[in-house]
């Protein structure tokens, strides 16, 4: 039985572990923290439960596929519900928009609130689906760094459509050319943040992302997002995966250009191959110190990070839903700060996630658990203590203004997460949420591959490797990596 060592128990590492165990590998996962899940974890405070990290669940069939691959019924491990409204949007001019998951209802809502004909939205989302079907599936289901992908029939069918894929336009240019209202442009520009990018730089091919919400749907697992981690961890245990918590990997051992195992405080653990589910930057800098690193890859622009306020609120707000967005007045200035000046605007877009709307046990009766996030630059040594103070004032001011309330007296408990603590807890270089940004039309090809070109039996998965960050992409990263290992040892 071939042994596999996996460094890190993020979503991709958990998915890869069970997939490999199902194919007969003996898998050990080494995790520096005392818990699995990486960013996808939870905590409780004063009777409120909070999902600490990712808050959006799309493409549930990717998660189901992990269990089905292992011969298990996904519903024995977790259940979920579809959310009828993907988000409530608030604009500075007083406009409020309910983004219904049903695209016909969404078109009617936009026509009613913004005066843009519903047909415009229908056409936009149809094009988003075409982009995903023709190009997105290639990107999400295959390694982009193997010739077999590029000689496939699917790629051959996709090639003639290249001029229509928006590779030479930005998301903002694409949206302004097709949408008739600046608020609607801002609404769809926001989807660049789903991989930590800038709509004024990122290629228009990313306009396929809204397809995931409005043509497929937005979902919530029973028990909150952390239920995904719990389900994957339990699956791993059932498949015989061994977990070593509180056991940081200190080095990946290389001999004669081949990965031979890992070294921890417990000693050397030999294996036939090693998978790093750790950010590729610290993987090379800390775990592979004697190996020449792919410097161009490591120095790519990092994705945005986040500043999160976890607030226990002692009253309810019926105008809010699971996902809520309070837009900034000047979106371009906000992104200039994220990627050019590396400063936090004094008028940020505020995202609020409230799972107690659907999981009443997540907050005391009559209260709500608010996950309040703004996008911020990756950590470059900014004065985060001052940024936290100033941003908290800006966030509460915006909430008070757009919700016509005074929120401060209703905050009964608070925790804060910033880029420094994200990096410390998860190993994500500079606290970036998605590894590198997608602000380059070639970004998909510049991400680190799921295997090493130089070292045999060394593999990579997770948000900093192909295909990128976010739960659906990390699940696919784990699948691609597991398939490569199975093929290697077939």
Highlighted features:
alpha/beta; single chain; seven-stranded mixed β-sheet; five-stranded parallel β-sheet; 19 strands; 36% helix; 490 residues; 17 helices; globular
As a whole number of angstroms, the C-alpha radius of gyration is 22 Å
Task: Give start-end ranges of low-pLDDT stretches.
Answer: none
Number of helices: 17
β-strand amount: 15-25%
Helix content: 25-40%
Give the overall pLDDT as a whole number: 94
Describe the structure.
The chain is globular, with a radius of gyration of 22 Å. Strands 7-6-15-16-17-14-18 form a 7-stranded mixed sheet. 36% of the residues lie in helices and 20% in strands. A hairpin with a 2-residue loop joins β3 (42-45) and β4. The protein has helices at 11-22, 60-69, 103-114, 118-141, 147-150, 153-158, 171-178, 182-189, 210-216, 226-238, 280-287, 295-298, 331-341, 384-403, 419-426, 443-446, 471-488; strands at 3-7, 26-30, 42-45, 48-51, 80-83, 85-90, 96-100, 218-221, 242-244, 249-254, 259-264, 267-270, 273-276, 305-313, 323-326, 350-353, 368-376, 411-417, 458-460. The two termini are 12 Å apart. It contains 17 helices and 19 strands. By secondary structure, the chain is of the alpha/beta class. The model has no long low-confidence stretch (mean pLDDT 94).
């Amino acid at each position: 039985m071939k042994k596999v060592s996996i460094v890190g128990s993020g979503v991709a590492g958990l998915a890869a572990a069970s997939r490999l165990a199902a194919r007969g590998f003996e898998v050990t996962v080494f995790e520096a923290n005392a818990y699995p899940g990486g960013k996808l974890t939870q905590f409780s405070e004063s009777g409120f439960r909070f999902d600490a990290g990712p808050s959006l669940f799309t493409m549930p069939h990717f998660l189901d596929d992990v269990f089905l691959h292992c011969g298990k019924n996904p519903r024995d491990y977790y259940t979920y519900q579809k959310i009828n409204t993907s988000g409530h949007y608030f604009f500075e001019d007083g406009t409020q928009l309910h983004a219904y998951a049903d695209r016909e209802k969404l078109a009617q809502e936009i026509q009613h609130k913004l005066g843009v004909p519903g047909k415009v939205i229908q056409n936009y989302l149809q094009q988003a689906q075409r982009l995903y079907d023709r190009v997105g599936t290639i990107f999400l289901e295959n390694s982009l760094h193997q010739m077999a992908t590029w000689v496939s029939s699917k790629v051959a069918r996709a090639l003639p459509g290249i001029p229509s894929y928006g590779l030479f336009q930005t998301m903002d240019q694409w949206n302004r050319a097709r949408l008739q209202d600046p608020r609607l442009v801002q609404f769809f520009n926001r989807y660049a943040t789903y991989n930590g990018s800038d709509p004024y730089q990122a290629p228009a091919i990313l306009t396929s992302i809204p397809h995931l919400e409005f043509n497929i749907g937005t979902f919530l697992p029973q028990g909150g997002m952390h239920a995904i981690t719990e389900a994957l961890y339990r699956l791993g245990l059932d498949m015989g995966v061994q977990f070593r918590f509180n056991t940081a990997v200190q080095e990946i051992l290389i001999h004669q250009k081949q990965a031979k195992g890992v070294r921890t405080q417990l000693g050397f653990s030999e294996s036939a191959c090693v998978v790093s589910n750790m950010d590729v930057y610290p993987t090379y800098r800390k775990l592979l110190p004697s190996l020449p690193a792919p410097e161009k890859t490591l120095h790519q622009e990092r994705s945005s990070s986040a500043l999160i306020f976890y607030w226990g609120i002692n009253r309810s707000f019926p105008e809010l839903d699971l996902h809520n967005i309070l837009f900034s007045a000047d979106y371009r200035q906000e992104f200039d700060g994220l990627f050019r000046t590396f400063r936090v605007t004094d008028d940020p877009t505020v995202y609020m996630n409230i799972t107690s709307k659907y999981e009443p046990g997540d907050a005391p009766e009559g209260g709500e658990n608010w996950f309040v996030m703004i996008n911020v630059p990756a950590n470059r040594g900014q004065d985060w203590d001052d940024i936290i103070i100033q941003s908290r004032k800006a966030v509460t001011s915006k909430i008070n203004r757009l919700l016509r309330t005074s929120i401060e007296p209703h905050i009964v408990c608070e925790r804060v997460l910033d880029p420094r603590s994200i990096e410390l807890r998860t190993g994500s270089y500079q606290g970036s949420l998605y590894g590198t940004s997608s602000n380059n039309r070639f970004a998909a090809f510049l991400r680190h591959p799921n295997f090493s070109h130089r070292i045999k039996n060394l593999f990579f998965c997770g948000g900093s490797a192909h295909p990128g960050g976010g739960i659906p992409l990390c699940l696919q990263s784990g699948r691609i990596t597991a398939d490569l290992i199975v093929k290697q040892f077939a």
